[in-house]
Design the sequence.
């Protein structure tokens, strides 16, 4: 996907996208197009799509997941707000934790920052335990660094205990 160059990126944000109901591939594609069209964001890399088993509540359809790297001139909390607005535009409906999703977009890393706010925790507190996050991210950013665990994404993938099925589509 081509996106226009924009000046002044201040942050590299690493995102995890997933969907498991409706037209999953279309929802992820639409979310990526909306991200790319958002002022202050530049979509740099997108992984392949991966078919993944649900985690947590497992009695639901399998997910499609991917990862993306975005250059952002937005502050991380403003990026979160933009991503939530994109989720709503794509059709996300509010449900309880670990339930079905039309689209889900999580910020998993921002540069080497540690953010602990009420609405945003970065690095994502579960990313190192989720193969469906690590595999797509390792495809496009294996050297992205987890500043709390002091390991790269590739290293985290090597040691994760998550055995859930993650298959490149």
Sequence:
């Amino acid at each position: 996907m081509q996106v226009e160059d924009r000046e002044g990126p201040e942050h590299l944000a690493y995102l995890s996208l997933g969907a498991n109901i409706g037209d999953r591939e279309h929802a992820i594609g639409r979310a990526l197009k909306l991200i790319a069209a958002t002022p202050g964001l530049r979509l740099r890399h997108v992984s392949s799509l991966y078919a993944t088993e649900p985690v947590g509540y497992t009695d639901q359809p399998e997910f499609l997941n991917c990862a993306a790297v975005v250059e952002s001139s937005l502050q991380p909390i403003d990026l979160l707000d933009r991503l939530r607005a994109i989720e709503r535009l794509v059709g996300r409906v509010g449900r309880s934790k670990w339930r079905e999703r039309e689209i889900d977009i999580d910020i998993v890393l921002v540069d080497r920052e540690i953010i602990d706010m009420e609405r945003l925790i970065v690095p994502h507190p579960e990313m190192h335990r989720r193969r469906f996050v690590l595999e797509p991210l390792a495809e496009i950013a294996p050297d992205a660094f987890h500043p709390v665990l002091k390991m790269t994404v590739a290293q985290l993938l090597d040691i994760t205990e998550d055995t859930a099925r993650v298959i490149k589509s």
Notes: The two ends are 18 Å apart (CA to CA). Residues 1-9 have pLDDT under 50 and may be disordered. Strands lie at 11-19, 41-46, 50-52, 63-72, 104-110, 115-116, 121-122, 145-146, 151-152, 166-168.
